[in-house]
């Protein structure tokens, strides 16, 4: 579709470059911005510039943060003896929305997927194992990974690397359906899965 303005065309191209945004939706959003006054549009644009300049990965858990370490890692009220391992930052947001979990997190940045060329070295496993080693006894590692083949492969890789350590390894209960991405689970089901987690070794014997 050719638009009447090259500036609208350029804005639509940029908006449509976002994942999940088609050109019709992009056009609707661009026209909404055209209706706004200049100051509101500038605040809108500046918020994204600030996002790129000031947001980075937490040096400890790889969650998004304004500071070197995120607010979850630096919160003294969080249980330092629990680390929930997740694939994606959106999984942290999903679990936090349940208000059932008060420990820390570790974001892998994906999951092992040989078909997609993603191996352990492409993710943050190394940093995770250093955290486990540094903590010593009394740590519980909760595997909050998706119920997919890739998620199970990632979970088993973690198990293989820490099974000889004193760390307690558990996995969220399978209230999450097999093949389900964690971020799409409803809050009640996800919350119950966190609370009713089971030892990881038991999950290895399931059919």
Can you give a write-up of this model?
This protein is of the alpha/beta class and 207 residues long. The protein has two domains: 6-54, RecR Domain 1 (Helicase, Ruva Protein, domain 3, Orthogonal Bundle), CATH 1.10.8.420; 72-203, Dna Topoisomerase Vi A Subunit, Chain: A, domain 2. The chain has helices spanning 6-16, 23-35, 38-54, 89-98, 125-135, 149-162, 187-195, 200-203, and strands at 56-57, 64-65, 79-86, 103-107, 140-143, 168-171, 198-199. The strands form two sheets. The chain has a five-stranded mixed β-sheet with strand order 4-3-5-6-7. It has a two-stranded antiparallel sheet with strand order 1-2. Strand 1 and strand 2 (64-65) form a beta hairpin. The longest helix has 17 residues, at 38-54. The mean pLDDT is 87.
End-to-end gap: 52 Å
- Round the Cα radius of gyration to an integer and report it: 21 Å
CATH architecture heading of the largest domain:
3-Layer(aba) Sandwich
Distinct helical segment count? 8
Query: What is the H-and-E element order?
Result: HHHEEEHEHEHEHEH
Into which percent range does the helicity of residues fall?
40-55%
Determine the structural class based on helices, strands and strand pairing.
alpha/beta
Largest sheet: 5 strands, mixed
- Show unreliable segments: none
* E-strand count: 7
Reading off the top of the CATH hierarchy, the class of the largest domain is best stated as Alpha Beta
Number of domain modules: 2
- Percent strand equals 5-15%
Give the overall shape: elongated
Residue-averaged pLDDT, rounded? 87
Widest sheet, order of strands: 4-3-5-6-7
CATH topology of the largest domain: Dna Topoisomerase Vi A Subunit, Chain: A, domain 2
């Amino acid at each position: 579709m050719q638009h009447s303005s090259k500036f609208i065309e350029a804005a639509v191209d940029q908006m449509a470059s976002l994942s999940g945004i088609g050109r019709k939706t992009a056009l609707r959003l661009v026209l909404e911005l055209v209706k706004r006054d200049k100051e509101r549009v500038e605040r809108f644009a500046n918020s994204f510039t600030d996002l790129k300049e000031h947001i980075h990965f937490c040096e400890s858990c790889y969650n998004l943060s304004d500071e070197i370490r995120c607010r979850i890692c630096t919160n003294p009220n969080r249980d330092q003896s629990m680390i929930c391992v997740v694939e994606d930052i959106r999984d942290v947001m999903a679990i936090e929305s349940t208000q059932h979990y008060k420990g820390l997190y570790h974001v892998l940045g994906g999951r092992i997927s040989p078909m997609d060329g993603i191996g352990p070295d492409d993710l943050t496993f190394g940093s995770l194992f250093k955290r486990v080693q540094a903590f010593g006894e009394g740590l519980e590692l909760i595997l909050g990974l998706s119920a997919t083949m890739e998620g199970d492969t990632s979970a088993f890789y973690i198990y293989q690397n820490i099974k000889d350590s004193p760390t307690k390894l558990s996995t969220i209960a399978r209230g999450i359906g097999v093949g389900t991405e964690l971020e799409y689970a409803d809050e009640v089901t996800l919350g119950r899965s966190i609370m009713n987690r089971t030892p990881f070794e038991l999950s290895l014997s399931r059919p």
